[in-house]
Design goal:
Elements: H1 10-24, H2 28-41, H3 46-58, H4 62-75, H5 80-92, H6 96-108, H7 118-150, H8 155-169, H9 201-206, H10 208-221, E1 227-228, E2 250-254, E3 256-257, E4 260-261, H11 263-267, H12 270-277, E5 291-296, E6 300-305, E7 312-320, E8 325-329, E9 332-334, E10 342-344, E11 350-354, E12 360-368, H13 374-391
Antiparallel strand pairs: 1-2, 2-5, 3-4, 5-12, 6-11, 7-10, 7-12, 8-9, 8-11
């Protein structure tokens, strides 16, 4: 694999060519002398140090090889070749734990596999194998020794502990809230919230048959009332939405406009709105709440994205559900089940897909975060109203 390195000066280049010829002939002692002499005259060439590390390793001068790699990394501490060689040297010496850590550091700097030559791809495959084995063994070790402390914990705490272990092992990516606009401080990074935080959730789920009846009636009478969910001006730099922009493959039947109910639509879905109104809706003047039937056509994927405001959470209730549909928030992927609701933080990266040959429909609405007391909710509303007024933002921009 070629990397971008400065051009060698003529003396170093000549010595390097001679050393490579000696290495190809199997004369490692001569190659070492050529490289060491060149480096004694000028110590600044990375390739000379890398080749010297190879030669010293072949001569079983392992400490000398490590020393050469340290010199190479002092010139470029992110050099993938040097990092990989250092890890492979530890691996060959049976220093497995150190090798696994070193391989992990090297893999962070690894180019795409297609940019690597065959020997380097083989070395990278070995790096991944050693690192994965080390992570699995360390994970088992940690869980065995933490079992006594973990067993008495409630379910949600055990889930947090599992996430803590996985992020410590670096087998789980650390996802954080990334609201596009409003970030209220002090709120936790929770992907899916525990049902126990929402005393209303079972009553909401029990309304599923009535909500489905409303949906069936509207589908039969007013399919045209469903409009593309993504609607941006074409000139905006929103590449991730280009495929779905103004596309009915992802559409919605909205019950609110500018945070106010649309009377004609709400009247046609009485059981849906009765269920939604019982929720702690995230009421923000001219902004929210929101509620809609969300339709995802067959073979359609909603790309990874984040929501606008972290002070509210999003509720999903599946209504029409073929197989091969899924949903991911952060590290956690779930499958919908008819009539089973969940609550998640949409300011953590999430995506959805329908790989089936049939349409998927869910009810989506929003609620206040249960971690925000009523008096703070009023303050949030005041801040957003003042901000909108100052900026001259037209009423009705959703959060």
């Amino acid at each position: 694999m070629r990397q971008n390195v400065p051009r060698m000066n003529p003396d170093a280049a000549s010595a390097n060519r001679a050393a490579l010829q000696a290495m190809a002939a199997g004369n490692m002692t001569a190659a070492r002398s050529l490289l060491e002499d060149a480096l004694a005259r000028g110590r600044g060439d990375l390739r000379l140090w890398l080749n010297l590390a190879v030669v010293r390793r072949q001569l079983r001068d392992f400490e000398g090889a490590f020393a050469a790699l340290r010199e190479a990394l002092s010139l470029d501490n992110r050099n993938f070749t040097a990092l990989l060689m250092q890890a492979a040297l530890l691996d060959g010496l049976g220093r497995t734990k150190e090798a696994a850590v070193a391989y992990g550091i090297a893999l962070v700097q690894a180019p795409p596999d297609e940019a690597l030559d065959a020997p380097t791809r083989q070395a990278v495959a070995r790096a991944r194998e050693v690192q994965a084995k080390h992570q699995a063994e360390l994970g088992a070790w940690i869980r065995e020794r933490a079992a006594g402390a973990a067993d008495p914990l409630p379910r949600d705490a055990r889930q947090r502990l599992e996430t803590f272990i996985d992020t410590t092992l670096r087998v789980r990516r650390r996802f954080r809230q990334e609201p596009m606009e409003y970030s209220y401080p002090g709120l936790p990074d929770i992907e899916f919230y525990d049902r126990g935080e929402f005393p209303w959730i079972e009553e909401f789920e029990a309304a599923t048959p009535g909500i489905q009846r409303d949906l069936a009636r509207i589908l039969a009478e007013d399919e045209a009332g469903f409009s593309p969910y993504i609607r941006y001006d074409d000139h905006l730099p929103l590449d991730q939405w280009r495929e779905l922009n103004k596309n009915p493959r992802w559409s919605a039947f909205h019950f609110y406009d500018r945070g106010r109910e649309i009377p004609e639509r709400c009247a046609r879905a009485p059981e849906t709105m009765a269920a939604v109104r019982r929720l702690p809706q995230a009421v923000v003047d001219e902004r929210s709440p929101t509620a809609m039937y969300s339709v995802l056509k067959p073979k359609t994927r909603i790309p990874p994205h984040t929501g606008i405001a972290n002070f509210r959470l999003v509720v999903h209730l599946p209504l029409v559900l073929p197989g091969r549909c899924g949903f991911r928030v952060g590290n956690e992927t779930r499958e919908w089940r008819i009539g089973e609701a969940w609550v998640f933080d949409d300011t953590i990266e999430h995506e959805a897909w329908n790989d089936s040959d049939e349409t998927r429909i869910i009810l989506i609405c929003d609620i206040w975060s249960p971690r925000i007391p009523p008096e703070e909710r009023e303050a949030i509303r005041a801040v957003i109203a003042a901000t909108d007024a100052w900026r001259g933002i037209p009423p009705g921009t959703q959060i």
